[in-house]
Amino acid sequence: MLKIPDDLVSFQRRSRAVSRILDGKSTISNLIRYFDANSDMIPQTFGPEVREASIDKAGIPWRKTPLVD
């Protein structure tokens, strides 16, 4: 069974997404700079820091050790 129409729709969707990123119109407007190791971007604060006690109280499983070294 050929899936050419589905593949075309998927390609078009990805193409539009890449265009939005390159034009700075993605949800994160500076997405390319976000991943640039030489970027001078300043971190943004989005809300209060979540404390371990709140996570424990909510019973949300989480890792106390980092995923990478």
Q: Give the low-pLDDT segments.
A: none
Radius of gyration from CA coordinates: 20 Å
- State the distance separating the first and last CA atoms: 46 Å
Anisotropy-based shape: extended
E-strand count: 0
Residue share in β-strands: under 5%
Major pleated sheet? none
Order of helices and strands: HHH
> Residue share in helices?
40-55%
**Mean pLDDT over the full residue set:** 81
By DSSP (H or I, 4+ residues per run), the number of helices equals: 3
Structural class: mainly alpha
Description:
The chain has helices at residues 4-22, 31-34, 52-58. It is an all-alpha fold and 69 residues long. The chain has a domain at 1-37. The longest helix is centred in the N-terminal third of the chain and has 19 residues, at 4-22.
List the helices and strands and how they pair.
Elements (H helix, E strand, L loop, with lengths): L3 H19 L8 H4 L17 H7 L11
